[in-house]
Amino acid sequence: MKTWHGLNFSRLLAGLNSESCAASDAQQPLVPSGSLKPNIVFVLSDDQDLHMDSLSFMPFLKQHLTDRGTTFNRHYCTNALCCPSRVSLWTGKAAHNTNVTDVNPPYGGYPKFASQGFNSAYLPIWLQDAGYNTYYVGKLFNAQTVDNYHSPHAAGWTGSDFLLDPYTYEYLNATFQRNHDLPVSYEGRYSTDVVAEKAYGFLEDGLRSAAQKPFFLVIAPTAPHSNVHINDNLIDGNFSERSVVQSPPVPAERHKHLFPNAKVPRTQHFNPEEPHSVSWISRLPKQNETNIDFNDHFYRSRLLALQSVDEMIDGVVSRLQEAGAVEDTFIFYTTDNGYHIGQHRLQPGKQCAFEEDINIPLVVRGPGIPKGLASDIVTSHTDLAPTLMRLARTALRDDFDGTYIPLTAPELQEAVETRQEHVNVEMWGIIMSEGKYGSVLYPNHTYKALRLIGQDYSYLYTVWCSGEHELYDLVADPYETHNLVAHDPSNHSILALPSDDITGPQAPTAFSTPTFSPAHTPNNTTFGPPLIHLLPRLDTLLMLLKTCKARECTHPWKVLHPEGNVRNLHDALRAEYDDFYETQQQRVEFSRCEKGYIRESEGPEGVVVWRGVDEVGVRGGARWQHLV
């Protein structure tokens, strides 16, 4: 597996005159000169992994985007599930602010997106207001169906051709719905190839009018998502193990012979001897060879399905080159969420807070963007809408929960010192694997998580609705195999759980409060604060982020410390703040497990804001204010 360590500024600064990162790249403006705004092409794959090395099997992506643009190694989705992630991407809002937290009603899907008012308040609407033609091909949201696609029609698109449920994920039986026309079945046609043909058509439309009006084109194939046969047109509140039939993705016939020996990378956390994590994950059995062989087949099928996506990238770039527009066009490549197969004994799927599921591909090419650069600044899907609006030279909204991603060499260099270090990750509801084995529906998979990355630290901290906690130091433990949070078995506090949601052997009946060793220092790292000091800082940050809005989401340390003297975890760990974090703050916990975002079930809210010390410096005289 390919790994990178640190933002390669030595290469960037020393190689500004090289072919891979020419001096002109660093000096060019972010957008082309002149009165016209830049064209933007946005390719959004479905469930694509970063940590199982899928990008290495896409040579056209490398040729046209990775080698000609910048790769963001630490890009994260904030919800590792299709529909919630896509809504956050197109609105710039965290899932707790969109209240779209599932793929089906009542807590998610296209009907929920529309009912929350976002059909008149998301990116294509804003880009049209900024003077753009906007086009979309492929999957927009889950639960956009052959029955509800017109109630209402998805707004904001000059031209659109949406995949519709229940046929969205059927590679050889897809249904598309163009503009305001009736749905059309493409039974027997390979869906990614149909997406490509339609995308090329909209690209030609955009190029034809580009002299007068720039265009924004989204191409969203379902590859490498599993092939899914949905048994009901709309699953509304009654999802079960019989609602869908899931199987490996189907490759195009021309690609079936490729990669015969490809296997899931056998990393340290692949099908381990001892179980990992907490909750239902900690009770997963070790996979046998028959199971592993099938999952390797599933993995190969994903790589094969991506070949048509890779060819589509070549087709788009070739057409832009022929039109003389490629150097004036920004091209983004990303996915909605990551994927796991076998790590931590997990069957194929997503929705976890592990790195495989939340750390996802993002590659950007365009005018002024360094070529061949890999950046380690922290970015997330809530940052993409602000980034695209900035490229469109239009004012950013003050209710965005993200901030624009720096794209030029000077901005990227400055961001190493100034960029936020955190990602807020959240999940609600149920989870079911997509493979042949272990496809058990676990009725509650609700948690809040914090991903925090600095120059010499890297943490994942998760609080589950069951009361279980996880803390991983990814510097010492990059595969997240050792939970640093111990539990005191003498503590038997009972968590109120709804009896209709949690049943069977996976049902937690009690939880323990975390305990920590004051002398604990992780191995293989120079930064190892005692957990008794570290965990309250992480908990407070998560407490703020779990209900944050706008600036609270992008600058949480500034909210906690308005004077601005705390910018990162190192600053927050100063001894003068021990009482502030360890005594004055509330702790993240749930009062009830739910299948969706029910705010009153998510425990205490609000943080205490540091107001300094008294005139003689007595810490006991500090003044705090409760922020709700």
Automatic annotation (TrEMBL):
PROSITE patterns for the chain: SULFATASE_1
PTM (free text): The conversion to 3-oxoalanine (also known as C-formylglycine, FGly), of a serine or cysteine residue in prokaryotes and of a cysteine residue in eukaryotes, is critical for catalytic activity.
Domain of life: Eukaryota
Pfam families for the chain: Sulfatase
GO molecular-function term, one example from the UniProt record: N-acetylglucosamine-6-sulfatase activity
Classification via InterPro entries: Alkaline_phosphatase_core_sf, Arylsulfatase, Sulfatase_CS, Sulfatase_N
GO biological process assignments: phenol-containing compound metabolic process
EC nos: 3.1.6.1
Top class in the EC scheme: hydrolase
Domain Sulfatase N-terminal residues, every copy: 38-392
Residue positions where 3-oxoalanine (Cys) is found in the record: C82
UniProt keywords, alphabetically: Glycoprotein, Hydrolase, Signal
Record has Glycoprotein as a keyword: yes
Recorded family membership: Belongs to the sulfatase family.
Stated name of the protein: Arylsulfatase
Organism from which the protein derives: Friedmanniomyces endolithicus
